[in-house]
């Protein structure tokens, strides 16, 4: 069988995206006692890590939806690549927790390295997923214009280099690296409109 529809692939993906995004909120924990306001302010690394990871997962989910809409079918290779993508998405709450707990503390550099490495791997797998589906219009529906396929590919192109840059920035400033990761998510938010064709 050459391939089947994309409904099951998208339904399973939506479930993983939703669970991963929900798990991120578990990084917040406030111990009982006095000065609740001060302790809430002290959680700012958790807020930053949460916002960055949630926004990134949300944008990946949006773009994944629009990419799948361009596909006529899914084959086993695409499904396997999709599984690898979802594995990195589902893993994201763990390095997010590391950043939330260690940013501005002694273990911050190792925590941010793990965080950035997860994003780099995610970008690599996501690029491989799309390029496999779109190369030679292998899985692209007949009615999708070539210009739409090229626009999606162009939007994917900067992903790996930008996330690799966050890893390099972490060598000098872990906090700046996380801020740059947030900026990349913000960069991709308007570019998601390129996928809506």
Brief account:
The protein has 197 residues and is mainly alpha-helical.
Structure write-up:
The chain has 197 residues and is mainly α. The chain has one domain. The chain has nine helices and no strands. It is elongated, with a radius of gyration of 18 Å. The two termini are 29 Å apart. The mean pLDDT is 89.
Defining traits:
9 helices; 74% helix; single chain; mainly alpha; 197 residues
Strand tally: 0
Query: How big is the Rg?
Result: 18 Å
Along the chain, the helix and strand elements come as HHHHHHHHH
Secondary-structure-based class equals mainly alpha
The outline comes out as: elongated
Tell me about the largest β-sheet.
none
Oligomer: single chain
Mean pLDDT: 89
Pick out the low-confidence regions.
none
Distance between the termini: 29 Å
- Give the helix proportion (percent range): over 70%
Number of domains: 1
Percent range for β-strand residues: under 5%
Number of helices: 9
């Amino acid at each position: 069988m050459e391939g089947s529809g994309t409904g099951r692939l998208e339904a399973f993906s939506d479930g993983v995206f939703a669970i991963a995004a929900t798990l991120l909120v578990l990084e917040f924990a406030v111990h009982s006692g006095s000065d609740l306001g001060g302790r809430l302010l002290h959680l700012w690394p958790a807020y930053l890590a949460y916002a960055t990871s949630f926004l990134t997962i949300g944008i990946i989910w949006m773009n994944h939806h629009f990419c799948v809409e361009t596909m006529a079918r899914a084959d086993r290779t695409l499904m396997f690549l999709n599984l690898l993508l979802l594995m990195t998405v589902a893993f994201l709450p763990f390095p997010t927790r590391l950043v939330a707990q260690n940013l501005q503390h002694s273990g911050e550099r190792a925590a941010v390295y793990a965080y950035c490495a997860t994003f780099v791997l995610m970008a690599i797998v996501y690029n491989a997923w799309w390029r496999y589906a779109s190369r030679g219009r292998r899985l692209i529906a007949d009615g999708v214009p070539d210009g739409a396929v090229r626009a999606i590919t162009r939007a994917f192109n900067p992903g790996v280099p930008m996330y690799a840059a966050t890893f390099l920035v972490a060598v000098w400033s872990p906090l700046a690296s996380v801020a740059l990761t947030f900026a990349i998510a913000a960069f991709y938010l308007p570019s998601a409109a390129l996928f809506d064709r």
